[in-house]
Amino acid sequence: MRTAAREDWSAPGTYEVAKGVYRIPLPLPNDGLRAVNVYVIVGDDGLTCVDSGWALPDSRKLFVEALASLGCGPGEIGRFLVTHVHRDHYTQAIAMRREFATPVSLGGGERAALEVISDPTWDPMPLRLHKLRLDGAARLANKVAAEATERLGSASFDWELPDEWLHEGELVLASGRRLQVVETPGHTRGHVVFHDRAAELLFAGDHVLPTITPSIGFEPVFSPNPLGDFLRSLARVRALSDAMLLPAHGPVAPSVHARIDELVEHHGRRLDQTMAALKAGADTAFEVACQLRWTRRERWLDELDIFNQMLAVSETRAHLSLLVAQGRVTKTLHEAVHRYAATS
Ligand SMILES: [Zn+2]
Question: How remote is the CA of residue 246 from the centroid of ligand 1, in Å?
Fold first, then answer.
């Protein structure tokens, strides 16, 4: 009943995934991810949370209920360890810090993105639209612009810096539990995962997801080769001892290694398809994206909603950038659009 299990992972509740470690799925307002998992580590020292959820009333209510089922309240959370700056992971920690002064830690590589999004006058749209136009997707950019006000209207949040920037290294909780902080740029530039070697657990955030591939290169501060970053980060995590996968979206899975192997294979296939599309005549990120199939349902680009079309084009750009970095593809700017061509 694999399908049923996949449908159920987001059902509200408190699920013990390992001794003293609980998964708490919390709701998201508007996207296909359905929920975000917060992991609560219960120790002698109190509670440590990995990720925090999106600061929304429904999410907060379910979070407090889930903590109550563990006999705790939100004031007993000793710290938040946040895998990356996206609002479904970071904002509830900040909201709770305002009430309970709970310390919040975030990967040091997120500083640049956080400084950009913290600026109340910052609007992500002009840069997104500019990128889409460079990708040869001017019509899609116009549709995105038309939908933008509606989508972003409810999303305002007073961003704040964390108490602590995390870097590569070991973190010892007061309970004695040791978490290896591993920097895993790709999904975002400052993404980190937490490896509990002794308990064979990986708190993976969005770096390794069990049923989908994380979006790549969709952030305010661009890496020149986000997919290259991501694949290098996968290799780094693959080199750690294997662990149970505790993802931020989706059900817990038995082996990080097995899932990374699948992801690497997926991107290899995607790179081959991207090359094939270029050889068949596509020469912009948008045209390549139109030739590829999307989601597990193998949809065409124009069958996706506008937001996911934008993600798909940005992911295609990430694949093209990696091929350029590998010397398999050339990129030129022609009439304000990036054109790509296979070198062989
Ligand atoms: Zn996420």
Answer: 13
